[in-house]
Amino acid sequence: MIPANSPIVQLAARSGLFILAVGMALAVYRIVRGPQKADRIIALDLFSILVVAFLAIYAVLSAEESFLDVAIAYALVAFLGTAAFARYLERSASPGRRKHDPNFEGAPRD
Amino acid sequence: MIDLFTAALILLGCLFCLLAAVGMIRLPDTLTRMHAATKAGTLGAGLVLAGVACCFGEVDTVLRALLTLVFLFLTAPVAAHLIGRAAYRTGIQLSSQTWVDHLDDDMGAGRRPEDIHPQQSKPQHRGEGVPGDVDWTRSCHRSEDV
Lengths: 110, 146
Prior knowledge:
- The structure holds 2 protein chains of 2 kinds.
- Chain A is mainly α.
- Helix content of chain A is about 75%, strand content about 0%.
- The longest helix of chain A is centred in the N-terminal third of the chain and has 27 residues, at about 5-35.
- The radius of gyration of chain A is 20 Å and the shape is elongated.
- Chain A starts with 6 loop residues before the first helix and ends in a 10-residue tail after the last helix.
- Mean pLDDT of chain A is about 85; it is low at about 105-110.
- Chain B has helices spanning about 1-25, 30-55, 60-90, 100-105, 115.
- The longest helix of chain B has about 30 residues, at about 60-90.
- At the A-B interface, helix 1, helix 2, helix 3 and helix 4 of A face helix 1, helix 2 and helix 3 of B.
């Protein structure tokens, strides 16, 4: 018997889904509340990590291993999204900071 | 036996994920929040994926779960580095308990300790002076002296 069918694993997976849902709620609170843009991006990154774990556990519960492919694809898209948000944040840096930063591309633009 | 091990891995991973989310709420500023989310979150999701890999019998499914784990371990530090760099360069507000900002000295970005603590000219910690009354912010090399 593979472990996915044993009642202990089923119980752990179900309670794990509940715990992850609580964690997602806390991350969403930080996305809504976060005082700065960087806080929101970090909370979004954590949210996507939690979603990957959620999908992996759901693959066990539903005995449908194609949810693992969904988890891989979601992790890839989430990484690209985080990188894009970080680029956006860096481009929208305030001029006061940019002026002092010699490494910033396009620093002498203004 | 293996099912107990699998259940323990999944539950432990979920608890680490919850810890990361709690750190997201409780910690005072952006960089400490990033520290919680990246490290505890990656460890939690890694434990969950390892537990899931133990659950399935077929080789290809186990390999897919382990591939997700490796991918997560490769990309999470890169994403955290990108966000941290962008966040610092946009001039985020640091926690009021921050004493030393070495990167500021290295970058020469013109952000002095007075900018981090606008109200107080000297770093204070919980109402008392720094032990030994050492001015930590002056002990590091500033780049405009070069």
